[in-house]
Every structure is written in structure tokens, then in C-alpha cells.
Amino acid sequence: MPRTIIAGNWKMYKTQAEAVEFLHEFLPSLDITPETRQVLLCVPFTDLLCLSKNLHGSRVQLGAQNVHWQDQGAFTGEISAPMLTEIGVRYVVIGHSERRQYFGETDTTVNQRLKAAQAHGLTPILCVGESKAQRDAGETETHIMSQLEIGLQGIDQTNLVIAYEPIWAIGTGDTCADTEANRVISMIRSQLTNPEVTIQYGGSVNPQNIDQIMAQPEINGALVGGASLQASSFARIVNYEGA
Ligand SMILES: O=C(CO)COP(=O)(O)O
């Protein structure tokens, strides 16, 4: 069985002070068994060091939201994998649709970032998903298959998480129907060589829909944006009802 991983993606939200305040409320309300349910917070770079100290000994792991493919060099504004692992980061989100849309991320650079993350022992969370126009044109499957084909070239599937995030469902409140998310995730799994890869759903996950999403057999977790910013709402999500 793939491991269940519920991750919060804070995007560009929360100063350090706000992050610490979040933890004070969030950590005591966790009601999970870490062996069966992994919880992650993927936070802005400036929050990582402080959260690493505050999460030490807790049941929550830390993730970054991007990583460069070189270990060091003249790459102004970038952060490398050794810089992340040194401060206790274990996961990194790669190829989020917002990076693809606003910052020129391509499947090729996604692949380079995945390789660098794995080379340093980070677990990458590869984000894939179709736009509304692609869905309407019936191109959901071909688009995702092409993202996977290029993104996963030469990638070790024993240290990998995939997040299916339909772009039209991100931040819109327009959640993909859970059976449809299950169908697409099943298609994604059919493209993989390792059946144990955790595949998450992301896109308007909230405390009201998490139980139903997690009841789907192919869905192994969630990547949560807006609803991970409030401690009470993210706690309800990670404490979802189910196995
Ligand atoms: O992009 C997302 C997580 O990476 C999803 O964002 P929302 O949960 O705000 O829709």
C-alpha cells in the first residue's frame, strides 16, 4: 500500500511569526499515527529554518516549494538541495502549476529539479494536472502522460510522490469530483513502474470534502493550499475520518 501523505502548501503566505503561531495551535490538535499518515508543511524558504527547529521531535515533516538543479553557482535568487537538507527539509514540491504558469517552469526543468532533489535524499512531490481548456478539449490524459513522460525520465520511483492538481480546481472552490480524481490518478498510476508511489489529489481540498476524497481507493493523500493556512481547518483535514 502506498503511504498516505497529507501536505499543506502555504505558497507565499506566512511570516515566521505567523508560522510559529500556526504551530502552537496546530501541533496539539493532531490526532494521527505517523506510521500510517504522514503530515507535511511545505512553506516559504524564509520559514524553513524556524519551522525546522519548532517541528523537531514532532510528527510533522518539512517541505520546500522549489529547488534548483545545481548544488551551487551563480543563480541569483535560487536555493539548492544541499541548502535544504542541511536545515532538515525532507520533501520538496516540484513543478507546481503556479511555477509552470508564472515562472517558466517546463517539463525539462522539472525533470532536472527532481533529479537534484533525489540525488540529495529529498523526496520530490511532482505536480501534474490539466487546465480547463485542456480538459474541455478532451486532452487531460495526453497532457498528463506527456508531463509524466518528460518529468520522470531517469527518476527513481522509490523516492517519489506525485500530486494530481487539475489547474481549474486550484483556489477556485471548484473541486474535481472525487470519482473523477480517482480515475485520473488511476491512469497516472498505470504509467508508473512502482505501484507504491503515493499519489495525492490537490485542488480546493477542505474540511468538508476531505473524508470523501480520502475514501477513494486510488487517492493516497492531499496537497492542500488555502485550507492549510488555518490551523483548525488543516488539523481537521489531517485528522480526516478513515483508515
Ligand atoms: O495548489 C494547491 C496545492 O498545491 C491547491 O490549492 P487550493 O487548496 O487553495 O485549491
Write up this protein.
This protein has a domain at 66-224: TIM Barrel. The mean pLDDT is 96. α1 runs parallel beside α2 (45-55), α1 crosses α10 and α5 (107-119) packs across α7. The protein contains 10 helices and 8 strands. The radius of gyration is 17 Å and the shape is globular. The chain has an 8-stranded parallel beta barrel, surrounded by 5 helices. It has 243 residues and is of the alpha/beta class. It binds 1,3-dihydroxyacetonephosphate (13P).
Tell me, briefly, the overall form.
globular
CATH class of one domain: Alpha Beta
Query: Cα distance, first to last residue?
Result: 12 Å
* Number of helices, counting only DSSP H or I runs of 4 residues or more: 10
Reported for the largest beta sheet, the result is:
8 strands, parallel, barrel
Question: What is the radius of gyration computed over CA atoms, rounded to a whole number of angstroms?
Answer: 17 Å
Helix fraction bin? 25-40%
